[in-house]
Design brief:
310 residues, mainly alpha, two-stranded antiparallel ribbon, 2 strands
Length: 310
């Protein structure tokens, strides 16, 4: 694996960077080995993230959302977290220790997403956006034929993804997540039905396009069916329990942002910054409005002079 990488966390789309450069202690090399192992497994379970980062060995692949696969990924995360817990971080260089802290928090953030946020069982949006293949259209990173094959391979997994969603999701789900997932699923179907087809209209490989059209039609049906399933089955049983709560929010800040300040203090800081920014906007708006008045006055004066001269 490359030494300079991005580790993308699931719930907040944050990232950390493992530093490249000379290793100052033997411990740095040992830590880098663990980090590379973590990243390899991370991207293997999240291949669409790999493609987004430019690792095209993951093209055309999609996450296995079966319960067994989810349990295995959590177990992998915990195993690496335990190894890092026993690692002699004090023997790392200053730069290595910084990377160590970032990686540990990234892993804890992943575990938190699985076990506390429970995105795969409590949030239907987890599955509504899985069939997003726009990266293969908006990025010209290879021949179109190869990208069409990747798109088709992903779309062919639609039945399995939606089956896993129905098997994994809890009986009662938070209403905001259900409503948003319905919009996401229908929006995804609209994209596949119109935008994606239009983007590939000039592609002339009929054999490959026939396979694509079949996969695309089925994927559209699956997304529409998922939206209907949520609306008819989950929405009537929806709950209003969607807030993380203070304790979990504290953990989210600690793992995701490495922030240890109490939420109350963060809120106070945020409100002070909001008021400061609002004051800047108000002052700027007054200046803009004043200029407009001067401009209008100037135009009115010129028109009056022209009339007098006439």
């Amino acid at each position: 694996m490359k030494k300079i990488v991005l580790l993308i966390t699931v719930a907040l789309c944050g990232c950390v960077r493992l530093a490249d450069g000379p290793r100052h202690t033997p411990a740095d090399a040992a830590f880098q080995q663990i980090a590379d192992e973590y990243l390899k497994g991370y991207l293997a379970w999240r291949p669409q993230t790999g493609t987004a980062l430019g690792f095209h060995e993951y093209d055309g692949k999609i996450t296995d959302f079966s319960r067994a696969s989810i349990f295995a990924e959590v177990a992998r995360l915990r195993a690496i977290d335990n190894r890092l817990d026993k690692f002699d971080a004090a023997s790392l260089s200053k730069r290595g220790f910084y990377d160590y802290r970032i990686l540990r928090n990234a892993i804890k953030r992943e575990i938190f997403g699985f076990e506390e946020i429970k995105g795969h069982t409590e949030n239907p949006m987890t599955y509504a956006g899985v069939l997003d293949v726009n990266i293969y259209i908006k990025r010209n990173f290879g021949p179109l034929a190869g990208r069409v094959r990747s798109i088709t391979a992903i779309l062919e997994q639609a039945p399995g993804i939606m089956a896993a969603a129905k098997a994994n999701l809890s009986e009662s789900l938070p209403r905001p997540q259900i409503e948003t997932a319905i919009e996401q699923a229908n929006g995804g179907a609209d994209f596949l039905q119109k935008d994606l087809v239009e983007a590939l209209a000039s592609f002339k490989d009929e054999a490959l396009m026939a396979r694509f059209r079949a996969a695309n039609t089925r994927a559209i049906e699956e997304l529409r069916g998922y939206a209907a399933y949520l609306k008819e089955t989950k929405l009537p049983r929806a709950s209003e329990r969607y807030a993380l709560g203070r304790d979990r929010y504290v953990k989210l800040l600690e793992y995701g942002e490495m922030v240890s300040l109490p939420p109350e203090q963060l809120l106070r800081i945020g409100m002070e910054e909001l008021q400061r920014t609002q004051k800047i906007f108000e002052e700027t708006a007054k200046q803009i409005d004043s200029r407009k008045r001067r401009s209008r006055s100037s135009r009115t004066f010129r028109k009056t002079i022209r009339r007098l001269k006439a």
